[in-house]
Amino acid sequence: MFITLESDYAVRIIATLAAANKKVDAKTISEMAVVTLRFSLKILRKLVASGLVKSYKGTLGGYMLAKKPEEITLKDVIEAIEGTYNFNRCLGDEYDCSRGMSGICCFQGAFSEISDMVREKLESYNFKDLLERQAEINKKCPRRNK
Question: Given a cut of 90, is residue 110 above it in pLDDT?
Answer without folding.
Answer: no
